[in-house]
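FORM 7B: Structural annotation worksheet

SECTION A. Query
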Amino acid sequence: MKSMSLNPVESKKRHIFLDALRGFALLGVCMANYPEFSLYTFQPESVVENMPSASLDKIVRFLMLIFIDGKFYTLFSLLFGIGFSIIISNAAERGRDGFKNFYRRMVILAFIGCTHLMLLWSGDILLLYAILGMILPLFQNVSNRNILITAISLLILPVIVDGICEATGTFLAQYPYRKWWETAHFFGISEDNFGTWLRDSSSYQGINHFLLQGAWERMYEFVDGNRYFKVLGLFLIGFVLGRKNIYAHLDKHFHFFRKVAVWGAIIGLPFSMLYAIDGMEEHPSGTTIHSLLYLISVYPLGFCYASLLALICTQHPDAIIWKWFAFPGRMALTNYISQSLIGIFLFYGIGLGLGAYFGLGSTELIAIGVFSFQILFSKFWLSFFRFGPLEWIWRMLTYAKFLPIVK
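SECTION B. Predicted structure
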């Protein structure tokens, strides 16, 4: 039979749970990232302690370390792996090999991520996702059991690497760390003005100088935090979940989700508290212990979040909350990039210049406000269009043809 052409998933065939979970993850990512946009994260300890909201901010920071730090990028990474399985499955149904389109999709995502990293925000994750995503097709014919073994090994590996480095005094991220500060000093950025540079820059040139050194800082964070092992491991777990089509039959896997939710909470919550205490004290137990606490707190609680939402969706599939989270979830790329644009407008000198004035609690309220705006905008946009603007461009470049956007 003549094979059918490859196209993006139709709106009516989308699974609202995945879109809602993606929207929920987008809220957490916004709350995790906005302390950097507001420049709160970059402030010296002396400035933070003298803020009027210092006492409240400590409580907020502690709660963020427990419930937010790492948990929502865990969800996004799982969703990425699930998405890959969907792309390949849809291609197989049409009698066409989906890998060509997948690699094109990853190259385009890498370009978007690189542009985001160099021109808008140093905290970009898309470039790393695209690079690691290109490895996923290697696991297409590997059994689920072996994929899970590989995934778990990758999640454990950072603890081993940190243990070896700490025992031997090795600093793997030395080169990007050195290039980071060499670039910063070249542009006149120092520890003294690091926390106010973006607010005080009255032109985009100053912003761009900060972003150039920030790109090296991001590379340092990836290496020092063993981020590539973590992300790839989560991709593979998501890939297996997608293979099993669990997201499409939530009710059939009710007991599985209940076990993951219960054990994720039993393990994740107490160790997340220990992880938060260790983080508040700047890792007094050492890098290896902190990495171990990350392993046994972030992933269990992240999996717990996903499972709890699946259980609630099973019991209340028609609840309006799913639609409200699904709106921004269907436009995740557009909303992720627009969070950066809104952050620049609010906090940098080329915008309103409000950076370094807000405490952590106020920053989180702003982040929730930004996401609420994105819900309303996404609902409005999707009333008239099939895709978000960036999703539309991404899809057309992926499938190398024009796709109608207006409903």
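SECTION C. Observations
Residues 1-5, 9-13 have pLDDT under 50 and may be disordered. Residues 287-315 form the longest helix (29 residues).

SECTION D. Sign-off
Analyst initials: ____
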